[in-house]
Design brief:
Layout (H helix, E strand, L loop, with lengths): L1 H18 L2 E8 L7 H14 L4 E5 L7 H4 L8 E2 L5 E2 L1 E2 L5 E4 L15 H14 L5 E7 L6 H9 L5 E6 L3 H16 L4 E6 L4 E2 L6 E2 L6 H9 L3 E4 L4 H9 L10 H18 L1
Parallel strand pairs: 1-7, 1-8, 2-6, 2-7, 8-9, 9-12
Antiparallel strand pairs: 3-4, 5-6, 10-11
Length: about 270
């Protein structure tokens, strides 16, 4: 028991040392699946990188890692340095990525782990990965308020905060409220809410079309007194570009790219201003 306690203390010390080189640590969470959380994470990372920041992504979705696919990194593997440190895979704009996907032999291979094993894996990644100097580390968490979000909150108590992703629906609205409460209970600052698939811009006339009952994100933000970071439009290009491995935010001048620029500017102002 004493040996186990000592090991954990040593690991926690290493995590603090490594994370001291990272200026800002942000978790991206959602109350439910299918809201585009990973898509938001990837495009936030790219938007920050395009501004000249050094960026890393920890894909903490152990059962359904999707970040490598969205950055064109499928099939890549993590390497180990001479010092036995894990070296992140470098993606577009030198975004450093660590994901369970880099450890799986095939897309069909499931990760069948219980809670304690998942926390142990996340702890080991945080201890052994050599991120180096980073301006931003984005942590893409699986949906809900279970093992992985709880583990990251416990392992990284000095996080700058969380960004909550939702979509315009009552179901998502009700579940997202739980994510806000989750963050509050764990004393994690909510940096703001992003409403994905918020509206559709008519390709012919440019008119904003409310496909769904948009405004759910803004209602939650107002109810809890937290910032509304922005609304991402519903755009067929998003899915296509995610499959191709190139984040849509690089499509300069598009409505979606402009929306992300505004979101990043708000986050910068919150953290640096």
């Amino acid at each position: 028991m004493e040996d186990r306690k000592k090991l954990i203390e040593e690991q926690d010390k290493k995590i603090r040392e490594k994370m001291s080189k990272v200026k800002h640590k942000i978790a991206v969470i959602s109350g439910k699946g299918g809201v585009g959380k990973s898509t938001v994470t990837v495009n936030l990372a790219m938007a920050f990188a395009l501004k000249g920041y050094s960026v890393g992504i920890l894909d903490a979705d152990i059962h359904g890692p999707s970040i490598p696919k969205m950055l064109g990194l499928k099939g890549r593997r993590l390497q180990v340095s001479k010092n036995n440190e894990i070296i992140p895979v470098f993606g577009p704009m030198n975004i450093r990525v660590v994901s369970m996907d880099f450890l799986l032999q095939s897309d069909e291979e499931p990760v069948i782990w219980r809670g304690p094993l998942k926390m142990s894996a996340l702890r080991q990644l945080l201890v052994e990965v050599e991120w180096g100097e980073l301006d931003y580390l984005l942590i893409d968490l699986p949906p809900g308020t279970g093992d992985e979000p709880l583990s990251v909150a416990q392992l990284l108590p000095d996080m700058d905060g969380v960004i909550i992703v939702t979509i315009p629906s009552e179901v998502s609205e009700n579940v997202v409220k739980k994510s806000v409460k989750f963050a509050e209970l764990l004393k994690m600052r909510v940096l703001g809410i992003i409403e994905n698939m918020s509206y559709l811009t008519c390709p012919k006339c440019g008119e904003r079309i409310e496909v769904f009952n948009s405004g759910a994100g803004r209602k939650i933000a107002e109810a809890f007194g937290i910032p509304m970071l922005g609304e991402i439009p519903l755009d067929p290009k998003i899915s296509k570009e995610a499959d191709s491995g190139m984040p849509f935010v690089v499509d300069f001048g598009s409505t979606t790219s402009k929306a992300f620029d505004e979101i990043v500017n708000k986050i910068e102002k919150t953290l640096n201003g």
